[in-house]
Amino acid sequence: MRRGPVIAALLAAATTAIAGDAPSADAIRAAGHAVLKRPEFRYAAPRGKSFLEDIWDAFSGGIAGFAKEHPTLFVWLFAALCVALVGLVAHILWTLRMARQAQWQDDTAAGLDAAMLRGDPAPFRARAVAHAAAGRFDEAVRDLYAALLLTLDRRGALRYASHKALLDYRIEAARDAGASRTLDLFAGVYHPGSFGRRPPDRSHFDELIRALDAVAEPAR
To answer: What is the domain partition of the chain in residue ranges?
Structure first.
C-alpha cells in the first residue's frame, strides 16, 4: 500500500482529534490495519521442525515421562548406564594400550628369545643403525634396546627374560654403575608409555649407541 493513503488517514484522524471530535472506532481500526499492512510489519511463517528435531522431542519427552512415572527405576537405570559407559571407555583404553604395547614388544621379545640362544647383540645393533639411517628412530631405539639387553646379559649385569620390564632391569643392574647409567639413558627415550618420554631423534640415537658401545667394551 502506498504511503499517501496512510498519511491521509492519520491526518484525518489527527484533524478530527484537534477539532475536538474523537475518531470513530472504525477509523482507528482502518488506520491500524493500514499501518500493519506495511512490508516491515509482515513476518514470515515460523519454520517447521526438522525430522531430527521431531525425533529428539519425542525421545526427550519419552524420557521425561518415564522419569516422572517411575522415578526410582529411572535413577537405577541411569546409574547402570553410567557404570556401563565407564566400563566401555576403560575397555577401549586398555585395548588400545595393549595393542600399542604389543606393537613394541611382541616381535622384539620373540627375536630376543632367539638371539639369546646365540648371545649375539650385533644383529639388533645393525638393524637399529639401518632404521636410524632411514629416519625411523622409534624402531631404531627399540632394536638398540634389545641389543643393550643382550649386551648386559653377556656382561652379567642382568638376566634377560621376556616377562621383565625396563624397571625390572634397572633394579637388577643397580650394582653395575655402567649398566645402570646406560639403562637410565634408555628409560626416558625407549619406553612408549613412560612419563615425560622424549621422542627420539638423531641426537638421542647417537647418544644411546655411544652408551651401548661403551658398556659393551668389557664384554668383548
So the answer is: 3-41, 104-219
